[in-house]
Amino acid sequence: MHPILKLVVQRIALGLVLLLAVSLLIFAGTEALPGDVAQSILGQSATPEALANLREALGLNEPALTRYFKWLGGILTGDFGVALTNGQDIGQAIGQRLGNTLFLASAAAMISVPLAILLGLVAARYNGRWPDKLISGVTLSTISLPEFVAAYFVIYLLTQVIPIFQPVAMVFPGMGFWEKLQAVALPVIVLVLVVLAHMMRMTRAAVLNVMQSAYIETAELKGLGPMTVIWRHALPNAIAPIISVVVLNLAYLVVGVVVVEVVFSYNALGQYLVDHVAKRDLPVVQAVGLIFAAVYIGLNILADVISILANPRLRHPK
Amino acid sequence: MNAEFNHLLTSAAKGRISRREFMGRAAAMGVTAATASMLLASAARAEGPVKGGTLKAGMAGGESTNSLDPALAASEVPFMVNMTWGEMLVDVNAKGEIDYRIAEEVSSNADATEWKFKIRAGVEFHDGKTVTADDVIATLKRHTDEKSQSGALGIVQGISEMSASGDMVTLKLASGNADLPFLMADYHLVIQPGGGVDNPAAGIGAGPYKVVANEPGVRHVFEKHANYFDTTIGHADTVEILVINDNTARTAALQAGQVHMINRVDPKIIDLLKGVPGISIEAVAGRGHYVFIMHCDKAPFDNKDLRMALKLAINRQEMVEKILGGLGSVGNDFPINAAYPLFDDSIPQREYDAAKAAEHYKASGHDGSPIVLRTAPGAFPGAVEAAQLFQQSAAAAGIPLEVKVEPDDGYWSNVWNVEPFCASYWGGRPVQDQMYSTAYLSTADWNDTKFKNEEFDKLLLAARAELDPVKRKEEYSKMANILRDEGGLICPMFNDFVEAKREEVGGWEPDPNGELMNGRALVKCWLNA
Prior knowledge:
The structure holds two protein chains of two kinds. Chain A is mostly helical. Chain A has 15 helices and no strands. In chain A, helix 1 (3-32) packs antiparallel against helix 14 and helix 5 (90-125) runs antiparallel to helix 11. Chain A starts with a helix and ends with a helix. Chain B is an alpha+beta fold.
């Protein structure tokens, strides 16, 4: 077997073991939550008999271990079960929401990743001069703003002062692609502001690091322009750390944007998770938790593999 | 009447200014409240409803956990959803009277133990079937089922026998209840074909709108039910509820015109929102109230003097001003206010009196150790701040309170109805009997003050079966006094529903029964072009 293929298979197997461990942790964690599902569903105005009936109907009286294996078995066969609170099929609900999450994340990534790398290269090119300082200053201040502040600011600016967008970013099946893009414009802007600095700074640092090398000096002495040196010679050798940061940010765009979703009422996985945590709807919390973990682990494996592919020494081991 | 007043009247009728603002400005012009109110009503009628369009509400209080099963509705959005596609036997209108819906006539025997509801002919479900007496019985039976998780279980439990013959539904009660029609207006008791037994969450009812899209926690879309029996309501072609739980986003959506009305305007921003053109704030005095509850059977609250000391040590006026931003009214330590029928307004208002509180505190012989008051941000909006205000006003009377802030998570299962002294809220009920029976009868499940008083119980049962309103009012007044002086309820304030709408919304009227015109705002309002 080719060493790279072997490595990839190894990573994936490790990832699956990790995912299994995570599933156990998630289950244990949700078990440890205070409060009672039945009470959370029925609220303050629940009668004791309604509570008892609901607990019985939900199977909450079975031991935890039995429920864990039932749950795991279900997931392995693609059955996430039904939500305790409203009886909806979890797999179906998650499918649609996951689509929305990925739509928002990819829209934000499409803009932020190229922009961050470009800005990083420009900052590296003009290291220590005003374009570098301007780019660093602006991106650092946008990352320093808490997301909800940035969100409210954007809402105020782009729906009230200059009313060109809608503050509520819900998307529905049946909406056209452009209509959807328009709906998510504000959350995309906020997310771009939030993730830009991290990727930009890593690009800049990695490229600058490589720029110290002797071969860059040679390239410069050959008479190549500074941008060409960066693009042709520095960037390919700086790609590994950049990729890992980009992938980390992609993972964040998928699993970490609950606050932005809530502020814009965007109907994606984060808000779905929060609602069900509040109601102690454990099957949903567990399913979404597992999906988030899978995305995270998957993207990290991807980052690993790309870093290896990008490194000739690893690509062609002696 | 001069031109200025006419302009004002037209603005109010078209909904450009709020009713409250209209009344205020009319009074400034020397028009009496009664006249102004009458003129407004006729002007609004003359403007007439506009048919068509899409009317949208942006609402807090919806979760992706919501179900279309009307029995399970427990928060604001599912309530509004029920009121939009569902139809009950009767409704309670803004004046606190019964509006006949699926039932066109209601009558009872002399001791209110047997009630007859005559089913209106030709009312059609969304699936084309006609509503029959059997559907009504099946619906009530489903909610009565011991296994059901219906929020109306407590309401229908008192029915011992139900039968249908022709278009007549007969309900026999275990004991007389003069308020039964009001109970049948409960928003869970949506009449469903076959009682909704086969598929309770099908969303098929007899209401003015049909469910088109149901995406819990996101949006609910409805279209006009073409064969709806009442042509005076249901003006828009399509109505929509967008779930926007974030306060800022909800307000922004209203301002941007993405929605036409919103519920739960944050009291902190009312003054800012008042200046925005095209938007009016509607504050409606309701029956909901914010409370501090003491368990009458646990030390130190089993001491009547200590309870009285705490009741005297709270500054109600300050709470209304600081916690409700002035949009509410002071409570009087019983759960009833002027929004209820048969309210006795001659009961003296309890005021903050540090000296008297100190006297009672001394008489109670309490050892002076801090009394723990538990609260949580979600106990009611501003519950933590209210507890702190209480702590300060009590300290001035020499009563040491210790405020303990609990997490919202699990508050209703771990603190409320468990700990002897905590913050809570009640949403109010359509009639006094239901409020008292729910939380102050010795045997009530949610007797969250552990208040047990034989005389009170007797009066409650007597008043329930009493069909003479004068006698009934007297009995309720006596009960209010007992609870006010001896109960474990400290009721500092009744909160208004604070809502906002855009100027193009016509047909708005204040309704104390519930948020957004008792959930019927989308059904009763229209869009002025």
